[in-house]
Amino acid sequence: MILTLTPNPSVDETIALSEHLERGAVHRVATTTSQSGGKGVNISRASVAAGEPSVAVLPADADDPFVLELAASGIELRAVPTGGAVRVNVTIAEPDGTTTKLNSPGTEISAAVLDRLTAELEDLAAGADWTVLAGSLPPGAPVDWYAALSARLRARGTRVAVDTSDAPLKALVAALPGSAPHLMKPNADELASFTGLDAATLEAEPEAAAGAARHLLDRGVDTVLATLGGNGAVLLERGPDGTVGAWHASPPPTTVVSTVGAGDSSLFGYLLGHRRSLPPQERLALAVAYGSAAAGLPGTTIPHPDQVRPDLVITRTVQFTRGDA
Ligand SMILES: Nc1ncnc2c1ncn2[C@@H]1O[C@H](COP(=O)(O)OP(=O)(O)O)[C@@H](O)[C@H]1O
Ligand SMILES: O=P(O)(O)OC[C@H]1O[C@](O)(COP(=O)(O)O)[C@@H](O)[C@@H]1O
């Protein structure tokens, strides 16, 4: 079972333009779509589509349309009532695939709701192969909450994966190795944020990304899936003998429609490969195939396994380029 936590869920509104976005101009919108999203929610949605059991833990009222839509989609939920509305995130998708995301801070979360979310996770963790802590933290959550949760949930016997950004990511890295999750999934901007390296260089050069990701393995993380946008992803993994392997995978040919949900889909692809006991290169190929399939779908649409082509992904081993961190 894959257990997910989305502490800051979002209604994802996507505005698709039939022309390039020009700041200050008036645009006629081609289509608008609205989907229930947020990182853990998207991973649970991918799990359901792939026939993998999953439970999504999140703060939201049981009668919120957000929760009703997820339940109708077949996603098993533990929704902790908040009395507040789910935030709205807006994406502007341009015809060339350029995706501009405007993510809201979210509604203030109380200590009581945080405690209930923790209790739900602890209740379910022993039955979870993986527990995924994902996305931003809403106002009111302690910035080091993921670090604290990682330590508590590891003690329950689940593997822990974290995908976050900004201050919660920095707090998690600062808390290493004490509360190290088993897996982290930074993108190039996130790798840059805690290494001080240049994001564009990390995205363009898999060896540099592998070198940056290596800092996390040196501090107790077992696996790093560093996604590099259109340049695929790098996987670093500590083997049973303690040695670290590193691989890069290039995406299959992709016509990009909206990259929202691509990172979440790639993390799910890795977890699916792990649950199927595939070797590391094949887990990486599945991750990149899932991410690229999502990038080719509108809005936050999460791919069905039929849409995912790991057979078209090219993987190779990479050497580390040690950067400063
Ligand atoms: N332009 C693109 N072309 C093909 N695949 C893409 C593109 N952008 C993203 N992807 C796929 O989605 C995955 C995650 O993308 P990335 O932008 O790194 O993640 P995040 O959404 O977390 O920022 C990539 O590893 C790749 O497989
Ligand atoms: O919690 P954050 O960092 O604001 O991110 C939430 C947003 O990210 C998403 O989970 C998509 O993430 P990815 O594009 O990284 O896969 C959206 O569904 C949601 O709007």
TrEMBL record:
Keywords: Transferase. Its EC number is 2.7.1.56. It comes from the Bacteria. This is 1-phosphofructokinase. It comes from Nocardioides zeae.
